[in-house]
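[audit] Reproducing an earlier prediction to check determinism. Same input, same settings, fresh worker. If the tokens differ from the archived copy the diff job will pick it up downstream; this log only records the rerun itself.
[audit] input (191 residues):
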Amino acid sequence: MSNVTKRILKLTSSPKTVFTVADLAIFWETENKNVLRVTISRAKSAGYLQSIQRGLYALTNANIDLFELAGKLKKHSYISFETVLTQSGVIFQWHNEIISASDNGFETENSYGKFTYRKLPESALLDNIGIINTENYFIASAERALCDKIYKDGLVYFDDLSGVDGKLAMKISKIYHNKRLEKDIKKLFSL
């Protein structure tokens, strides 16, 4: 068994589906950048690894976790907005993109889909209340996603708020330092 094959086998046992160069260095216990670069190149040539974008890889023909990919495409981000609100049943209309909160806004599209990043204030991004740390990415709770959405877009129609804790949403709203958001949350939940 070749050295590259042994290294790829380590990746197949990982819960990760998307790998940065730093991830590969850790999995393969390689500190030498030249050795790492050559190993990645050989793994790609052998058809084991595919490049998603510069510095981001996946096992060829592997099922990629799109939330994990969204987190790797943009550091300092977490899944939120309509993506979480749809998943939580707060809104019923499906959005054909993954929307995340981040320190700057931009959109990118690749063969896996469209990924949108919406800018939030640093005070909110640095506070982890309502952020769930899964093994491979960060995702907002329904309450946090609701606050993110109202902060950016104002009070809009929501289909079903029965699964959202209004008191927790009110507590989360304070991290944005925005009186309109706090007022909208009070109005929405009759607090």
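[audit] rerun output stored. Observation attached for the diff report: The CA atoms of residues 17 and 64 lie 5 Å apart.
[audit] end
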